[in-house]
């Protein structure tokens, strides 16, 4: 059975899982927050305010992206879904049926991960659209929004690059969740990967190790400040690390005893 056929099967299974619905939480919260900002219930402040205290659509989208990413909301939700999608099936024995139909375990790991990445991209896209739509719905005629789509020095391409870097950073820890999920229960896998995420985020933010400046998260933080240095190394290193972790998980999965 080819990877593409397995991927389509896993993608359908992922959509049907109720726990996948938790990825709608950021979009719902973003719409509520935007409405609250428009009514004065919440106050938006920071260096991103421009033109006499107003924001363009792209600036507002990036402001909320920075807020949700900084709080670790995306990381928590995606790692949780990854833990249930892989470790949960191993612990519960549901993966037996998939193994009987497919046989080759390495392809199952890859297909499940690609299905999860597709779900992640969909959630990211929905979040961005909801934030942008909420901006034009609630903030365009307010004292905060200027009604412009982009701002000088910050275009749509910059926003998409920022989201891609966040995506790669979180994809690495989703792959790590798959890896530790081979040996640990879903909850322990979730906790282990989440602790790893927050530790790495802290080390990147504090600049403890100089080589972490080539990480996707570090480059995304500098991108918000208008700097694009170390972009190519960050993209390449992220893809390589994801491939290595996923490759190791695929090889070790072949030796795991499924009960």
TrEMBL record:
Superkingdom to which the source organism belongs: Bacteria
UniProt keyword terms in alphabetical order: Membrane, Transmembrane, Transmembrane helix
Transmembrane segments: 21-44, 64-88, 109-139, 159-184, 191-212, 232-253
Protein name: Uncharacterized protein
Species the sequence originates in: Enterococcus florum
């Amino acid at each position: 059975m080819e990877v593409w056929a397995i991927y389509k099967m896993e993608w359908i299974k992922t959509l049907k899982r109720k726990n996948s619905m938790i990825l709608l939480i950021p979009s719902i919260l973003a719409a509520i927050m935007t409405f609250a900002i428009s009514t004065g219930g919440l106050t938006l402040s920071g260096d991103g305010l421009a033109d006499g205290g107003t924001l363009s659509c792209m600036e507002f989208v990036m402001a909320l992206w920075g807020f949700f990413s900084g709080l670790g909301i995306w990381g928590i939700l995606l790692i949780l879904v990854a833990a249930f999608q892989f470790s949960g099936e191993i612990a519960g024995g549901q993966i037996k049926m998939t193994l009987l139909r497919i046989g080759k375990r390495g392809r199952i790991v890859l297909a499940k991960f690609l299905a999860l990445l597709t779900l992640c991209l969909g959630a990211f896209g929905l979040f961005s659209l909801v934030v942008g739509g909420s901006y034009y719905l609630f903030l365009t005629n307010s004292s905060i929004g200027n009604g412009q789509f982009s701002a000088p020095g910050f275009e749509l391409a910059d926003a998409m690059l920022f989201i891609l870097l966040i995506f790669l950073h979180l994809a690495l820890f989703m792959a790590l969740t798959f890896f530790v999920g081979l040996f640990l229960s879903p909850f322990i896998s979730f906790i282990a990967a989440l602790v790893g995420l927050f530790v790495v985020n802290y080390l990147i933010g504090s600049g403890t190790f100089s080589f972490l400046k080539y990480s996707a998260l570090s480059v995304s933080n500098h991108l918000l400040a208008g700097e694009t240095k170390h972009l190519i190394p960050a993209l390449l290193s992220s893809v390589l690390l994801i491939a290595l972790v996923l490759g190791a998980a695929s090889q070790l999965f072949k030796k795991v005893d499924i009960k």
